[in-house]
Structures are given as C-alpha cells and as structure tokens.
Amino acid sequence: MPISRDAVLDWIKAYADAIAANKDYLTQLDSDIGDADHGVNMHRGFQAALTKLPGVADKDIGTILKTVGMTLVSTVGGAGGPLYGTLFMQMGAATPSKQELTLADWATALEAGINGVIMRGKAQLGDKTMVDALTPALAAIKEATANSASLSGALQQSAQAAEQGMKDTIPLVARKGRASYLGERSAGHQDPGATSSHLLLKTAADTWAGAS
Amino acid sequence: MPISRDAVLDWIKAYADAIAANKDYLTQLDSDIGDADHGVNMHRGFQAALTKLPGVADKDIGTILKTVGMTLVSTVGGAGGPLYGTLFMQMGAATPSKQELTLADWATALEAGINGVIMRGKAQLGDKTMVDALTPALAAIKEATANSASLSGALQQSAQAAEQGMKDTIPLVARKGRASYLGERSAGHQDPGATSSHLLLKTAADTWAGAS
Amino acid sequence: MKKLINKPEDVVTDELNGIVAAHSDLVRVHFDPNFIARADAPVKGKVGVISGGGSGHEPMHGGFVGMGMLDAACPGAVFTSPTPDQMLEATKAVNGGAGVLHIVKNYTGDIMNFEMAADLARAEGIEVEAVVTNDDVAVKDSLYTAGRRGVGVTVLAEKMCGAAAEQKRSLKEVADVCRKVNGQGRSMGMALTSCTVPHAGKPTFDLPEDEMEIGVGIHGEPGRKRMKLQTAAEITEMLAGPILDDLPFKSGDSVLAFVNGMGGTPLIELYVVYNELAKICAGRGVKIARNLIGSYITSLEMAGCSITLVKMDDDLLRLWDAPVKTPGLRWGV
Amino acid sequence: MKKLINKPEDVVTDELNGIVAAHSDLVRVHFDPNFIARADAPVKGKVGVISGGGSGHEPMHGGFVGMGMLDAACPGAVFTSPTPDQMLEATKAVNGGAGVLHIVKNYTGDIMNFEMAADLARAEGIEVEAVVTNDDVAVKDSLYTAGRRGVGVTVLAEKMCGAAAEQKRSLKEVADVCRKVNGQGRSMGMALTSCTVPHAGKPTFDLPEDEMEIGVGIHGEPGRKRMKLQTAAEITEMLAGPILDDLPFKSGDSVLAFVNGMGGTPLIELYVVYNELAKICAGRGVKIARNLIGSYITSLEMAGCSITLVKMDDDLLRLWDAPVKTPGLRWGV
Ligand SMILES: Nc1ncnc2c1ncn2[C@@H]1O[C@H](COP(=O)(O)OP(=O)(O)O)[C@@H](O)[C@H]1O
Ligand SMILES: Nc1ncnc2c1ncn2[C@@H]1O[C@H](COP(=O)(O)OP(=O)(O)O)[C@@H](O)[C@H]1O
Ligand SMILES: [Mg+2]
Ligand SMILES: [Mg+2]
Ligand SMILES: [Mg+2]
Ligand SMILES: [Mg+2]
Fold first, then answer.
1. Do C146 and B35 touch (CB under 8 A)?
2. Which chain D residue has its CA at the smallest distance from C266's CA?
C-alpha cells in the first residue's frame, strides 16, 4: 500500500506537532550557534501551513506540497523559510497530479526537494546545515530501493541516516549560515536545521509505518 | 590646653582619612535611600581640601576653616557640597583671627556652622538629615559646658550625642533630601549625611583628646 | 560592573573629550570648571539659557547645547549636581547682555548649588532668573518635604525656552515659558533594572528577575513601590494614569507626549509603550499633537522608561516646532 | 526576561502600531504583509530605496524611512529576515518608475528572501538591483562560507543612497553609491551582555560579570572570542585596529566615523569610546570628517558597541550632509 494523499496530510500535521513539541529545543540549539529563532520560525510556518491544509485536502499531493512550501516561504522568513519552502515546493513540483506515492515517487520528490535546497543555499555536505541530514537520508532511500527494501523499511533507514547525519554535524565547523560566523566556536554543537530535517524524515517514517 | 591651629589642621586631615576609610560605607548607605554617591562626593571634596591646607597652614583658624568650606563648595557638588561647605565657611566666619579654640569658641563655631546648614537646607530635627547628628552634638557641648566638663570630655559627649542622633535617623521617614522621594520606604535605613556628620565630631573628639 | 569606560574617576572627563572630538562645530567645552557652551556664545542681545546637573543622564543636558536650545550646560560628577563655580562661569560665558535663565531640576543639591551660583552672578551684575522644574508625580508634593523631582519636563522646557530665547524674548518671558511648560507638564518613570554608579561599582539596588520599581527618578534611587513585572499595557497605564489625573489633563487637551528610555531600554520597547500611551490618551479624549520617543533623560544603563505629558497651546507648539541644532536634538535646520 | 512588551508574539505588531501612532506625518505602515513606506511613496521618477531585515535592530530599518533615506523598510520577526512577499509588496509600493534598489545585509536568510522577492518583482516588470552589505571584519571572508555580515555600514549606505535617489540619480548610480560605501566601509562590534529574544525568553548566551564578547554581530549571536573585560581604550583599539588594517585606511584618508550602541548602552559610554576612536584615528593620520554617535543598529537590549568607518570622498560627503527627515535620523530640514 503506497503513501496515500491522506497519509501525506497526516505527515504534515504530525510534523507540525513535532515542531511544536521541539520548538524550545530547536531554539535552544540555535541559541548556541545562531540567533535563537529556528524553533519559533518553523513553528510559525507550520502552524500557518496547517490552516491551509483544509483548502487543499481534496487536491493532488503535488498541490498540497506546493501549498505548504509557498506558505512556509511567506511566513517563516530567515534562512529556514526559503530553504524549507523550496524543499516542499520542489517536492510538490516533482509529484504533479499524484494521488499516492510509491517508494520511487517519494525518492524522486525528496531528491528534487534536496536539489532545490542546495541550489538555493549552496551548501555542501559537511557545511553543518540541514543538507547534512537530508543528503544521507536520500542516499539511504536509494540504497534501500536498490536492495528492494519495503517502503516502511526504506523510510526507517532514511530516518536513521538523517539522525546519523544530524549527529555528525556536532564536531563540524560551520561554513554556511549564521553558525559560520562563529568559526571554530561552532564545533561541538548540533546544527538546528539538521535537527529539524531529521525530525521531518523521522515523522515520515513514523506516520507511514504502515505503508509498503 | 585649648585646641591649637595645628590641632585644627590635624582634625581636618584625620577627617579626610576617616572619609577615605568610610567612603564605600557612606556610598552604600546612600545606595539604600539615595543615589550612591555620598562617600565618593565627600572623599573628592576632602582630598581637594587636603591640597589646600599647605597654603593656609600658617594662617588663622578662621581662614583655614573658610578655605576648607570654599573648597568643598567648589568640588563636592550635590547636597553635600553646599551643606558641608556652608558648615565650614560659617565655622570659619565665627572664628576670625583665632590661633586656638577654647571649648566656648568651638561651641560658637559649631553653632554658627549648624545654623548655616539649617539656613541653606531648611531641614528640621527629625527630617532624617545630617542635622539630626549635628544638632544633638551641639546641645551636648552646651550642656557639658554648663556642667563645667573638660574640653575633651565635652567633645566626647558631643561625639556620643552625634552617634545617638545618627542612629536615631534609622526609623525616621525622610522629609528632606533625596531619601524623601522614597516616602515610607526610607524608614529602616541610617542617613548617610548624619553618618558623615557623626564621623566629623568623632574625629574631633579623637584628634583633640589631649586638649583641655 | 560592565561599562565601556576607562577608570570611574575619568568617565566625565573622557566623555567631555569625546564631545570635543565629535561636536566642535556646535559646542565648545570648558574644563575646570567644566561646562559645555554653544560655539557662538555669547549671542548678543539674546537671553542665555543654561542648565546643569549630575552626569549620567546623557544626552541631557550637554547634548542639548546649541542653536535653539541651551546656551550652556554644566555636567557634575555622575548623579551629583555640579558646583556653583561651574554655573557661575557658564552664566558669564553665555551672558549676551539680556540676562541668563537657569533651568534647575528640583533636587536639594541642584537647588542649593544653583542658588549660590545665581547669587555670585548677580553680584557680578548679571541678571539671572532661576526656574525650578518639578514634574514627577511619583513623589508626593508637600511644603514640608523636598517636593517633586524635576525629570522629563526639563528636556521639553529646555527646547521651548531655547526657541523663545532665539526669538529674542525677554528674560522674564523666557522664564515664563519655562514656568508654563513645567506647570502644564507631568511625568512618571519606572525601572526594570537598577543602574551602577561607576564609582560605587555595583547596582544601586537589586531587582529580582520578575520585579520592577514604579515611580523611580533618574538617579538610580529606588522608586515608590516594587511589584511584579507586568505587561507594557499595564505599566503604561500605571504611569499615564497618575499623570493624566494629576494636572488633570482633560478631554480636548492637546499634548506633547514624551516616551523616554532610561538608558538601557531599546527603541522597539519605547514604541510598544508609545502605542499603549496613544490608546490611553485617545480613550480620554486627549489629543497627542506632538511626540518625542527615545532616550533623552537617562539613568546610566538603567532599563525602564518614563512618560511625560505637557499640555500645549499654540505658542508652545510653535516653540516646539522651531529649529533646533544640537548633538542630541535636531530639526528644521 | 525583562522587557516593556505585552506578549512576545505581539512585539512587532505593537511596535508597528506605535509607529503608526507616532509618525503618520512621515510614514505609512502596511500590515500583512508588513512594511513601512514613506507617506508620499511612490515618488515619481525617483529610484525607490528599500531595505529590510529582522526586527530588534531599531531604529534600523523602519526608523530610516522618509525623505532622503529609505522609501520603505520590511520588518521581519525578531532577528528573522522578512519574507519575499513583504519585499515584493514594498517594492511595488515605492516604484516610481525609475526602478528599486534593495539594500540587503549579508545573511543567508536575507539574501535568499530578497532574491526571491527581486525575481518576483522583475517578473512583474519592475527593474530591481540588489546590493549586499558585508562590512563586518570580525568574520573571516571567504568564497566558501557565508562571508562577512552586513552591519553598521548598512545605516550609512541607506542614508547616502537615499540622498542620491533624491537627486534623481539612476538606479545604477544609486546602486553604485551603495557599492562604494560598502566597499570603503568596515565595522566590528562587541558585547558586554547578551540579549534576550522575546520568544526564547532567556539570554542567547551567558556572559560572566567580568567577561565580554569581541566580534559579535547584531543578532545576539556569540562573537569570535570571549575575553576578560578591558578598558574602553583597549576595547576601542581591539575594534578599530582590525577595521583600519582591513581596508586599509591610510594616513590622509577622510572618514565618516560611526560609534553605535547595541541597544542597552548609554550615550555617555559611546562618547567615551568615540574619544578613544578619535585618538586612534589621529594617531594613524586618518581624519574624521563626519561622525555619528548613538544607537542606530541595535541588538534588542544588548549592552555593547560597534564601530564603523567609511572612507569618504567629496560626493559621499555631500550625500551624507544632504537633508534627511526620518523618525530616526533628521537634519537639514
Ligand atoms: N546556506 C544554507 N544551506 C542550507 N541550510 C542552511 C544554510 N544556511 C543556514 N541553513 C540552515 O538554516 C538553519 C537556521 O535556520 P533559522 O534559524 O530558521 O534561520 P536564520 O539562520 O536566518 O536565523 C541552520 O541551522 C542551517 O541548518
Ligand atoms: N535639605 C537638607 N538639609 C540638610 N541635610 C540634607 C538636606 N538634603 C540632604 N541632606 C543631607 O545630604 C545627604 C546626601 O548627600 P549627598 O549624597 O552628598 O548629596 P545628594 O543627595 O545630592 O546625592 C543626606 O544623607 C542628608 O543627610
Ligand atoms: Mg536562527
Ligand atoms: Mg547622594
Ligand atoms: Mg548625588
Ligand atoms: Mg534568524
């Protein structure tokens, strides 16, 4: 059973909840090496996205994802707004008219989203950004697909890879974003954007655990 | 042996030392019910006065006291400057051409000084000001004189009366000076000006203990 | 103590040297005794307007010296009124033959030191009038106490008296402007934090993280009462209410509204307070004709604010709008 | 958290309402999307100059909207760059037919959001140029990182670009002024205390009573290094030295010197710092032709300061001296 449109809506709602629950944690991480707003920003954006969902609940998955992306762009601000906005808008652009997503569809969407993030932010792997959580997650999905893993298994593995990527940001010296101003002092702290990106993939794996 | 001119100079120097030693204490008292500068102000003034003493060391006592008073007026500022300045200037005006002071001379000088302070500041006994230390000190001297006490004994008693007057300011609600802005909240704190005035009389008693 | 200073005893001198370095086009600084005077003082035939007070309230008063406002200002040590010789020398330096107005904030020290200076200046043949500002409604007024403090109104009076003097009004007329502004002006302040007098080295009072002082002056002295921190709306009501009731300001009155920061309060918060104040005034039918928002009469790095309202008439409005060119306040030129 | 606010989520809206209440003669505030525009925008035939950024830096940028400076400013949430729709609407509102300059501080968020807005505006047929300010020498510049932050130079560039636009210079010429000011300007800042983002509710970093952060930006982010508190002379040297060396500023250069307070620093301390800066510049033969001293680009209630120097030429001096009439900066009119 692939990922239904309702499952996509559930995922977005679950992620909004996860952001709400982790708002202070994300802001705290951003205090250490940034400007103490990442949790607040993401929360504002996803609360706004929630209010848009009823209006697109009967539309295709591409439209839903694009709507979320556009809402994030116009409500989050900061680095997170354009980056998460682009991620969702590109995922939406990659899933036009879809009523459900197979594992391959999801991999395609995620890849398009991540490429968008990299185009916009020009971060590379190891720059201590959300890309460090997203890129390994995509690689894990591709590998799982190559190994004919189940959908839920692949999602699980991508969440684990994102978690590892997130943790791997700790020792890094930031080269992009606000943390880069700290130079060497940015090492020893986990990147807030990588943390919110891990949450995104973990929420997907949890919400879609029944998919196959 | 009355109070010699050198003894007067010694008293001023000893008081400058006492102010230096009590600078932080006086400022702390002024923090509680004022603006945290009484110790600093008095210290600035008496350090300036010290530099003027060599120039008048061979002059009469009236000139010495007036010089101290004028120096205080032009270096202390705040309430303390005009009040202590007036105290010394009036004491000087009351002791023209004197080379030494008897107990009666000292009582006359002090009375003139205190009257000056009251004229300038318009405080009454019980307003929680330096007047509350000075007025009982003068009364004690007069009483001691009436009782034919020795000079050093009279000085001792005036210092004790000043101490009592100073302590008696603690429960008072201030009606003059900066502490009056606090209303009821000024009660429970010892007045800084009364404290520096007690020190003045205590230093006199200590410095002139050998006088008779 | 966290301050951008060298030594506590050098703060005022260093600051004055900074003013020399920055504003020699506008002002001239005289040292020993210390005062700041207009570069072109004395202005012949114009009433000289001077003020003075302890340092630590910047830009007041030194920042208000220049065309259209003060002719001179005398800075004392931090929170300590200046000495008579400062005011005497400043008075002489700005006397253009039409007499000199002393604007004195109502503090025992300021009153006594300015009085001595006025006596000395008069003895030298200079006509001097002194007007005392005492606008702080947090202090209960009484004949038997030191009376109300002079606070925010002082800044506004200096501006309007300066404008009146530029018009070549007489000493009595300029003094009348000061009396009118003071008579029609009321203020009240509050503190979120204490300040630290450089010499003292530690905060004048301790204020727990969830408390504030209502009714403070501008010398770091504690206020009338301490209470739990409240919202900007509630705090503004606590300040504006007593001000409006005291004069009282009535429906239909036209006012100059001044929201002042205490030195450590950022502008964004002052605008939040101004927004509440505008609502309160509107609710009472009081029209804000002019406003001033910023940190103009401060208590070192104290966080907090004060509100001042002055009832305006056409003459005062014209005096307020007149050109002013000082380091701290400038428009129309 | 001690602030004069109502609710953290309402700070920006309350502040904007305060601006409406205070400055409707100068500016117009548009809500949802939020931006502040000149009361008379769009000015026909004049290049529109706009900027924007997170709130918490007041008076920048909103306080600089008015004749001779910005045509519009877009305030984001506190320390969060605004969204593209804000800049798009502001761009449309100030386009007088001669194109619009976006002055963008170099932060990843600001860059990306402004880029999206410029793309959208161009798609609607409006000519847009964007110039990025990146003057903070505390940050090591590199092609492979986010590069230097845009800080104090932004305020000065806004003033001079605004003046150039008033002269009806072309979009390219106004953008050239911005590039020149940025190219010839350098800044560095330090903090005595952290600030508290209203939503976060506690200080962004903890700084012991005897320590300071050198090389901070304007978002409460920690600086390049933490060290023991020093004198104003030493601190000023730590900031001015790297600035002077970086361009480098040379003997004979004429500069605009800007000593800026971070929001919680009183003016008296800024003059102490200016005094040191004047000595350092004099020692290197660098002539301070103009100065600006005050809190103009702030970090909420952070205590600390920053220094900015811009090498001036005759054209820039004329643009700096030109009349400006905004809530935050005003002269010549
Ligand atoms: N150039 C970039 N590319 C990808 N991600 C980035 C980039 N710059 C910043 N980020 C991410 O954005 C996060 C910060 O987001 P947020 O706090 O919302 O924005 P801001 O830094 O503007 O305050 C960082 O933790 C990092 O993961
Ligand atoms: N009107 C007055 N008459 C007599 N003494 C006064 C009067 N006002 C204040 N004082 C004294 O002055 C002291 C404060 O002096 P100081 O701190 O030097 O001046 P300021 O109050 O101007 O800061 C008070 O403690 C009080 O004893
Ligand atoms: Mg952030
Ligand atoms: Mg005192
Ligand atoms: Mg004092
Ligand atoms: Mg941010």
1. no
2. D263
Q: What are the tokens at D243?
A: 């600035």
Residue B79 CA, ligand 5 centroid: distance in Å: 7
Active site (annotated) includes residue C57: yes
Residue of A nearest to D79 (CA): A35
Indicate whether C151 and C201 sit together in one domain. Answer: no
Domain boundary among C184, C219, C245: C184
pLDDT tens digits for C294-307?
Answer: 999 999 999 999 99
- Give the whole-angstrom CA distance, residue D290 versus residue D295: 17
Q: Report the pLDDT value the prediction gives residue C262, as an integer from 0 to 100.
A: 98
**C189 touches B: beta carbon within 8 Å:** no
Distance (Å) from CA D239 to ligand 1 centroid: 28
* CA-based nearest residue in chain C for residue D327: C293
Long-range contacts of B186-190 (CB under 8 A, 24+ apart): B186/B33, B186/B128, B189/B29, B189/B32, B189/B33, B190/B29, B190/B166
CA terminus-to-terminus distance, chain B:
5
Architecture of domain A3-207: Alpha Horseshoe (1.25)
Confidence of residue B11 (pLDDT cuts 50, 70, 90): very high
In-domain check, residue C329: no
Q: Quick check: CB of A111 below 6 Å from ligand 1?
A: no
Using the mean position of ligand 3's atoms as its centre, give its distance from the Cα of residue A134 in Å.
18
Residue B65: pLDDT above 90? yes
Catalytic residue among D23, D30, D57, D199: D57
Q: Is A36 part of the contact surface with chain D (CB cutoff 8 Å)?
A: yes
C109-128 pLDDT, tens digit per residue, is: 999 999 999 999 999 999 99
Q: Based on the domain organization, do D177 and D39 belong to the same domain?
A: yes
pLDDT given at position A149: 92
Is D114 found in the same domain as D35? yes
Instruction: Give all strands (DSSP E) within chain B, no chain letters.
Output: 3-4, 100-101
DSSP code for B177: S
CA distances, B173 to each of B33, B162, B189 (Å): 11, 19, 9
Lowest-confidence segment of A111-115, A182-186, C325-329, D38-42 by average pLDDT: A182-186
In 3D space, the residue among C45, C129, C147, C24 whose CA is nearest the CA of residue C94 turns out to be: C45
Based on the domain organization, do D21 and D99 belong to the same domain?
A: yes
Same domain, C78 and C217: no
Q: Do both D231 and D293 map to the same domain? A: yes
Examine chains D and B and say if they touch (3+ CB pairs below 8 A): no
Domain contains C331? no
Residue D177's CATH number = 3.40.50.10440
Active-site choice (D23, D61, D102, D219) = D219
What's the average model confidence in pLDDT over A122-137?
A: 97
Complex ipTM over 0.90: yes
Tally of domains in chain C: 2
Q: Give yes or no for C60 touching D (CB within 8 A).
A: no
Enclosing domain of residue D67 = 8-184
Residue A1 pLDDT class (50, 70, 90 cuts):
confident
Q: Which residues 100-159 of A have a C-beta within 8 angstroms of D? A: 120-121
- D177 shares a domain with D192: no
Q: Characterise B105 by phi-psi region: left (phi > 0), alpha (psi -120 to 50), beta (else).
A: alpha
Tell me if residue C199 is catalytic: no
Asked whether the beta carbons of D41 and D48 are under 8 A apart, the reply is yes
Q: Write down which residue in D140, D165, D184 finishes a domain.
A: D184
Establish whether residue A45 lines the binding site of ligand 1, counting it when its CB lies within 6 angstroms of any ligand atom: no
The answer to whether B89 and B70 are in contact (CB under 8 A) is yes
CB atoms within 10 A of CB C225: 15
Closest to C333 in 3D by CA, of D163, D321, D316, D319: D321
Domain-wise residue ranges, chain B = 3-207
Q: Are residues C162 and C279 in the same domain?
A: no
pLDDT classification of A125: cutoffs 50, 70, 90: very high
